[in-house]
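Input/output pair, single chain:
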Amino acid sequence: MNERKVLIVDDEFAIRDMLRMALEIAEFRCLEAENIHEAFTRVVDDRPDIVLLDWMLPGGSGLELLRRLKRNDTTKDIPVIMLTAKTAEDNVIQGLDVGADDYITKPFAPRELIARIKALLRRVAGGDDEDRIQVAELVLDGESRRIFLADEPVDMGPTEFNLLQFFMSHPERAYTRNQLLDQVWGANVYVEERTVDVHIRRLRKALQTDLRDYSDLIQTVRGTGYRFSSRGVAAR
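Output:
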């Protein structure tokens, strides 16, 4: 049986125990850590498929660990879901900006968390679309899940990749944030609309390199949402 490994990083035993029981029922294998130093060691040694990371931890915040994971070439692609207090609005945006793939606010239902974990793992694994899509010097290879701009590889997270893949497969059409959530995150997963804005910012930043700036392919459509448009790109 190929169990997916989930690392639970939380300093409260009761929360770790609750999460572990829910995840094991859902047939995940659970690893646990109660501080950022122990957590980083577990990530490096055990290579979990996903990390559930609490914001407030002894010996340093979850954000500090998130930054460390995203700076390290061997751990930067491991998806991370932040667990945050309901009132920590700035924390949510800050965590997503640093590199968190998703977040869930406390208190939460275990069933919702399991759904979010499964949806994120599906996004990381990618779908069955193995097409190679090209717009001028921007190339998306669905089979290898790699992006190239002017023949140089572009580093971006799994959610940004899936967003770009959806946009490039459906150009010149405006999508609302809710439509993007349904198409990229999944219709049965609750994610707030502002999450889309954060990942759009990260996608645009990834499309700005020293050689080329293709960030304006992702257009903001006032009163609606976003659109991918390649009109005018050939003139560059």
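The mean pLDDT is 86. The first strand starts at residue 4 and ends at 9.
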